[in-house]
Amino acid sequence: MIGELLQRSAQAEGPAADGLAAARRRRGFLFMGLGIVTVLVIGGLTTPSFLTFENLLVVIRAASITGIIALGMSYITISGNLFALSAEELAILAACIFAFLMRDGYGLALALTATLIFAGASGAIQGGVISLGGDPIITTLAFGALFRGIASLVSDNKNILLGTKAAEWLGTGRPFGVPTQSWAFIILTLVAWFVLQRTRFGRQLTLIGANRLAAKASGLRVGQASVVALTLFGVCCGLAGISAAAQFGLAVANLFSGLTIDVIAAVLVGGIPLRGGQGSPVQAALGAVFIALLQNFMLLHTFTTGQRMLVIGSLVALATVGFHLLQKRQE
Amino acid sequence: MTSRETFYDLLIRAAFMVAVYVVFAAMLPSYHTLRGAGAILDGAVLIGLTALGIGITMIAGEFDLSVGSLAAVIGVFTINLIIAGMSVVPAIAIAVLAAAAFGALQGFVIALTGINSLVFTIGTLIGLRGFALIISDENSVTIPIPRLGETDFLGVKYLGLFSPLTILMFVVFLVVHLFLRYTLWGREIFAIGGGRTEARAAGVPIMRAMVISFALSGALAGLAGAVSSVRLASATPLGFDTLLLSAVTACLIGGIALDGGKGTVLGILIGLFTMRFLVGGVASLGAPYWLQSLAIGALLIFILVVQLGAMILRERAAHSGLGELSPP
Fold first, then answer.
1. What's the domain count of chain A?
2. Which residues of B touch A317 (CB under 8 A)?
3. Residue A324 and residue B115: Cβ atoms within 8 Å?
4. What is the complex's ipTM, to 2 decimals?
5. What is the pLDDT of residues B249-264, one digit of tens each?
6. Which residues between 94 and 153 in chain A have a beta carbon less than 8 angstroms from any beta carbon of chain B?
7. Mind listing the pLDDT tens digit for each residue in B48-96?
8. Residue A2 included in any domain
9. A182 neighbors A168 (Cβ within 8 angstroms)
């Protein structure tokens, strides 16, 4: 379906209506850019090992898993469905299923395809319930609990070892010196940006998020958009799960601790408003990079876990209040 | 919803609760004994207090995601106060006051800026967890062994059934019920949840209702964290991470409406025990602890689907002209 929509690339629908949204988006980028440059400058001046190519690779790699799922999450937010609380659980379940299939010798291609299809379908089911009128927060909270339970069941709450090196490259390879996860992150960011800004589907998704009733009245399939957004999100979680299972050579039901909140933090710090219809996946990606950069800076300065969480939490609270007030003033 | 509809709604939910109890009572001898029932009551305190708090913010049309982190902070804080030499009850009281103050501040900021509470409480959820790690030095904190006797009074059972914490929970539920139903400040919480614009037009002070509902939600999550940490004589900064899920499930089974303005304290109590009967039953049947997540998830999805089905049926009825009894 997306392929077909991609072919029918949409025309811009009048510059005036888009002007304000574009201005807001630019402002989002501006703040993120300023934030990233500030951390880079302060980090570079105070921390000798910070501005090295090796360290920046570490940062990008740390941002990759969060960032990939944040791209999917941004589609959910932009389509007006708040956010999903099941990212961590779905990624864990995908990792367990991938490891399970690899261990039982189904081969890399089959394991990859089956896991991604499963992850996409798990997203689609949640999208289906939401499109019938289920609250996104509660629906994904419920399915998250279910996914975690199934992951524990599949793995018997123990490590599942892949027992083969076939998938190792997916998790540890470094084409041209850059980790595979980071390649995936960069490429997916470009794809997500293109689909949202330059295709009919993306524009419909944004319109549905901006004004559900108007979208419905103009004949757009509102429910379908939720299903597609959640499916893409599911596939992103699946990719994260596969990548982690391949990297560590095992899957276990307590991988990815705290991932969901990290992903939502990236989306919020990136300045995507919760009410939907505004923002770009690139903002979510930049949000993930910014948080990873800040985490790395604090790590090099030997902040404790608690101190780092306190800083990130305050950042999220301040950034969201700031973005909210700016938006209110503009209206 | 008229009071008659509310009554029937609660009756159906109570019947569901009894059904869950009967199913497990048929398989589990412990469900018939006083000791078994006492254990179920004890197991309900932590989730019950938190669910009551979440329920209040949901009635106000808001959502407080930070309860789990706040319970962890207050748990550690209470144990720290006891380690510093304070006796148990004053330590709990001070910690709960601190939680209420934090909740009130949170409600104040949300009301002042008009920011979505989901967004803001994500920030406090992360930050509070960090704070819990800082004040605990990233380790579990425990009441010193020579002073463990001071918490013994919590293990007493009156009539073989009610522990002091169970009684505390029921008293808190009763007080909150009376407050929400019979005081102006309580009614205002329903008003801002039912229709914020109408409430503002009618002169309801949004700020007061928001500060009170978030202060109550904070205080109750704090009380839950404090008493369950004291009961265990230890607190871990990473604890209570699944508290939100259980508390929300109890509220939803109990009929607290997500879009605000609707719900009863009795409903939360019914939802709480429906969940306790199920989760406690699954555990007693010998399922490993991690299957609880599966049970809660399945229960929540079941409730969600039933409510969606009822909503879709009601809409159909309304469209075909049969819905005159409940105009939109």
1. 1
2. 120, 123-124, 127
3. yes
4. 0.87
5. 999 999 898 888 888 9
6. 129, 132-135, 137-139, 141-150, 152-153
7. 999 999 999 999 999 999 999 999 999 999 999 999 989 999 999 999 9
8. no
9. no
